[in-house]
């Protein structure tokens, strides 16, 4: 089950430097090596964009803002062949290529970004940016300013004193980056999941600049209340962990147990029974597990999610996860007025691409967004990703959408 | 939105004695009073069935077993007009009627159980039984033997030393009760959710006794690995709470925070975006909530689920919830051999009734079960509950299935 294996590998890795994997998959690394050996953008480098200060839409000023970004391809003289890629909840700006020839993993959308691929780096200048308060704050390949950063006013990590940041704030910082790079038009903004929120927000915030929006496994035009509640549930185990200590755990024991429980939850929400059946079935974790007599006996699906959760918990920052979840909860293009008001302002065309087996960003969210946008006179393409990989099909199974994406991007 | 209000009320109450409710719903009590004023089984009484000892399928013996039950209607002389009702995860044997004329709530399936109703108590003798390790261990209207019970060997509560119990164990104890009541044939066994597991298990365990199985919002023939993982995630917050203390919290501070987080999670899994939109939308909990500047600002959907979770946490037993979750994880009709082997042994006909908006027991589980049972030559009816109430439509919206149920039961 290569697809299933790659999903859990994706869940289990950060930005390519992590090699361990959950128990569900066997030794089929070579299958992926073959996939990954195809020509792509090659070696890439994380770059850093800095702003002396940025004021959030909530009116708080953050000093010394730094975010990481990567670029693939070349900007043309008119500055109008750029495509911006926005990442998902637990992702980084590593969207394509490798940092070193020894990396076994490429960026998450390598299947569609590269020379001759759907997002063709021979034609387009692709920019991929880290968000503020990026979850991977401890990862050397994610550069971000967030609760784990040092507050210049105190010399100590912000913790929960960091200002609330929103999807619009992510976009505003990206706008400064895009301007600094000399980009005058965005041929497209594209992203999966939380990246779709940023892509749509871009079209609302800077309608004259955005010609196309490709929203993959999208939330729609706002975080549905059910999604708001799901994000609340993701946040809960961290805040239950005594080691969280109201966010002041830097230099002490981090809330690894709570964070691991949160990550287990996120993974499950991102997956689907079809995947769980194929990858683990109802097998006990160990042949010796006495499921009828030992309460500690576990099914393989449980230990797999737990192990991947624990692995990732070592690399992520709990407070940053809370801030990113809050940003997603607050997402709505309707800053003032209605969704319709905001939608009417969009000038670019929109592609909505849900995954049919998605249990987190339900295909219904995309359908409703398409309906609303069309009712507002917008041009909308709607394409479904097939598969049983759930939400993660927007990452792992994106290759199937190459021609649909290419058509949307090139026309 | 009466349906939405009743769902959250159902989530927020125990067995009829609880009056408070979450914030989402307004003062529409009278709507339900009208519904509930229709004639039903009237006043009912909890009775207690005792067994000197019961040996689990895991081989452990539990002494002094007590479970509660209720009956509606009259057993005929041949003892063959009985219908057994098995309850859902957080339910009790209070399936119909009221304990007192002042009760504002009836039993959970009152819409379909009563004189002239789908499960017609003028014709059938209905028995509804509490499970072992019932989650409502602290509720005076649930009678159960489980981790909160006193271990006769030590004089102290079992805690996590209580033996693992399974759906088959629930059924075996019910079999002893049914025998004691003089029942010789079960005209039907019916139940929602975890009750559907018991109903199907009955048909596998005692095929000559069970003429019909009505499995509502069913898991299918086993707990899917995705469901196993979901149950793991339900268990996690309890075990993260330091007050849980490995299950030894009786007489001390109970793990209320962890249990509340668990219950919030269960509620959300049981609901659906359609409900969340109708009941709460994206409204902040308080007009004063400064969502862009105060990290403690909450959406109404969050505070509603949190409040209902906290309310119920006061009444439920955390260890019992863990044991009930474990029982569900272990559910498979394939005790030895395959699902097909077990399915072939079923003699009664089967009704599978998923809810179309169910995000917990996906309609796919029912479809696959129907397919497998039919391939084994079994007679299967398949009827979908319509609505946007999610899993809880199997409780709240069951009234719509009255004629389908009546047809299945009476023919």
From TrEMBL, chains A, B:
A Pfam family found in this protein is: Abhydrolase_1
The principal localisation class reads cytoplasm
Please indicate which superkingdom the organism of origin belongs to.
Bacteria
Signal peptide positions on this chain: none
* Any Gene Ontology biological process: methionine biosynthetic process
SUPFAM superfamilies in alphabetical order: alpha/beta-Hydrolases
A GO cellular component term found in this entry reads:
cytoplasm
Q: Which PANTHER family match?
A: HOMOSERINE O-ACETYLTRANSFERASE
- Keywords attached to this entry: Acyltransferase, Amino-acid biosynthesis, Cytoplasm, Methionine biosynthesis, Transferase
Query: Could you tell me which species this protein originates from?
Result: Noviherbaspirillum sedimenti
Listed GO molecular functions? homoserine O-acetyltransferase activity
State the family named in the UniProt similarity comment for this chain. Belongs to the AB hydrolase superfamily. MetX family.
Q: What is this protein called?
A: Probable acyltransferase
- NCBIfam families recorded: PRK06765.1 (NF005262)
Active site, renumbered: 193, 358, 391
All copies of domain AB hydrolase-1, residue ranges: 161-262
Q: Where is this region: Disordered?
A: 1-23
How does it associate, per the subunit comment? Homodimer.
Which Enzyme Commission number(s) are listed? 2.3.1.-
Location(s), subcellular: Cytoplasm
